[in-house]
Structure formats: C-alpha cells, structure tokens
Amino acid sequence: xxxxxxARGTTWAIFSLLAMVMYGxxxxxxxxxxxxxxxxxxxxxxSTQIGMLNxxxxxxxxVLILVGGVLVDRYGAARMTLGTAAVCLAGAALTAxxxxxxxxxxxxxxxxxxxxxxxxxxxxxxxxxxxxxxxAFAMGLSIGIxxxxxxxxxxxxxxxxxxxxxxxxxxxxxATLVAAASFAAALGYWWFDRRMRRQTPVxxxxxxxxxxxxxxxxxxxAYWCLLVLCVLWYAVxxxxxxxFSIEYFQHAHGLDLATAGAMNSYVFLAAMFTxxxxxxxxxxxxxxxxxxxxxxxxxxxxxxxxxLTHWSLWVATAMLGVxxxxxxxxxxxxxSKLVSPTRFGTALGLMAVVQNTGIAGANLVxxxxxxxxxxxxxxxxxxxxxxxxxxxxxxxxxxxxLLLWFTSGRRQEESVG
Length: 417
What we know:
Layout: H1 3-29, H2 36-43, H3 47-58, H4 61-75, H5 77-97, H6 101-129, H7 135-159, H8 161-165, H9 169-199, H10 221-253, H11 257-263, H12 266-285, H13 288-308, H14 313-338, H15 344-373, H16 384-416
Helix pairs in contact: 1-6, 1-7, 1-9, 3-6, 3-10, 3-15, 4-5, 4-6, 4-15, 5-6, 5-9, 7-11, 7-12, 7-14, 10-11, 10-14, 10-15, 10-16, 12-14, 13-14, 13-16, 15-16
C-alpha cells in the first residue's frame, strides 16, 4: 500500500472511532425524551423539571466550553476525548441510578460538561485529519452518524419495549451501556493516536487555536449573522425535538409512546445519509448561504404545520428532518470559510457558548409555558403557547439566514466557490 493509501486508511480509522463516540453522545442526549411521560407519571416530575434535565446539560457550557476549547488545544483531541467520554459515562450512570430529581439533574450536568468539550475535540480532530479536503463531507458524515444515535434513542421504546414496560429506569440503564461503549471507542482512539504520535513525532498542527477574546473584534458581519442563526435554530430544534416532541405527539396528536418515538425518528434516520450528502454538495458547489437559508425556512414551516393544521404529522416531521440534516451540514463548514483558520477555535467556542445558552433557555421557557397553560393529554391546547414560542424563534432565525445571504453570502460564495 502506498504512503498516501496508508494515510487515508489512518484518517478513516480515526474517524470511525470518533463516529462511534459521537453515536453515543447523541443517544445519551436524546434518552430523556422517550421517558418524559414515564417520569411524569411514575416520579411526579412536572414539565419544568423535564425541561431542566436537558437544560442543565447546556447551562455549564455557557462558560465551560471556552475552557474546554483551551484544554483541547493544550492537551490534544485524543486525551480530551477519552477524559470527556469518562465524564459522560459517569453522568449517564448517575442519571439512571439516582433516587432523586437532584441526582438525575446532577448526572445530566456531568454529561453536559463532558459532551460539549468532546464535540470541540472531534472538530479539532477532523480539521487535522481532513485538512487536505472533504472537511464538509467529514463533518456532515459525523453528524449523520450522530443522528443514528438520536434515531436509536427515539426507537428505543419499540426496540426495548420490555424495558419501557418495567418503568423509567431500565431505558436509562440502556443509555448507560451505550455510554460505556462510547468510552471504549474513545479509549481505542486515544491508543491509536498515541501510537501514531510515536511513529510520527512531528505532526502538522490543526487549525484550531486557543480561544482569545480580543479576536472577537475581528469577525465580520456575516459571522455574527451566522451566530444569531445558530442560537435561534439550535434552541428550537433541540428543545422541541429532544425534550418535548414525543410528549407533544402523544398528548396533542393522540399517538402512543412507540408510535410517537417512531414519528420523531424515521426522518432522522434519513439524516444519516442526507447530512453527509449536503456536505458533499457544499464542498463542490460552495453554495452555502442559499442552502442554509432553505434549511432555516423549513423549521418554522414544520412548527406551523404541526400546530396550526390537520395535515399528517409526516409532512411536518419530514420538513423538520431536512432542516435537521441541512443546517448543520452547512453551518459548521461555512464558519471555517467566514473566519481565518487561526481563529477557527475562537469562532467555534463562541458559537458553542451562545448555542448552549439558547438551548438551555428554550428548554426552561418551553417547560414553564407548558406548566403555566396546563398542557397535558387532557388539555392538548395547552401546548399552543410552547409551539408559538418555537415558531417565533425559528422565524427570526430564518430572517438572519436571509440577512446573511443577501448581505455577504454571494460575496462569500464567490471567494470560496
């Protein structure tokens, strides 16, 4: 095998291990939604507490993700991936075995501390290993595999029906086993990277640098439009899809748990293939801004269809699935085009900060709105304030996508196309 062939093999071997950890990361995050109704009925949790179990994942990362980026730069992606996978495993176990809400929340807090820094480490690793090209495809493929984890979590009421019949805890114990498998993959990546470093003492450093606050002043208006879109889009997509959608489908549209989980998951199975496909198109066409605007538009449209029409839920979830595939496939590679490579880490860190702030806030607001309006299976109209809230945020996000396109999108495409 030629040296270039071995290099490609090494790159994809590393990617495969990272993808396994990414699968577990997404599964763990989405493990709360399928048990939300069980937690309410069996443990007496209200919607605010359910929202808190996902919001608390994001709260520490409003600040700590900046620290995580610095640690990745200092100690390397492999060591930080291994360390954060261990933290995620501890958080998953605490969530599954805690006898109290406070203990479960502490477990989700630990998971959040580990998971977001892992994502930064993964982006650093991809930037290092795919510096020669196909960055958007590799990022899209990693996100697509993560979507498989989300799909698996949503399908868990069907795949592990016996576990769900036993109550809220067995499904979370399954999530802990997934976390253990992710830790094993992270250990394999760390060992592989350590071996490669010994064989190749001099390695080209990645483009992700330490976070430097003064660099924020050097970002252009296009980046700031993208950042606002990032916080608004992620706030809606994760607060709705990962926390409240299954419960909403059960109570507002009369689906049983298994059917609601399937409804929330099938279109995201397609995201395994469409996300890397969209990334491949971006790599070859450079048409980032219009693709991003289209993906952002589909989110408020899907919310509106679910809340205001009697159309089949498949219509709305299909639009949601395309948005879920397209926006991440474009957003993260576009960020690398809008800022200097030497400030890519700073740009990612700041976007992660506002993203986590938005997701945490949206989870808390949505849960509070549901409690305030008495949303339940007996009062499905009580979910309307939450859906109005999500519709308003996502529409505003689409506005910033248009602003990005019309003010600087075309100029950016000419420079990178």
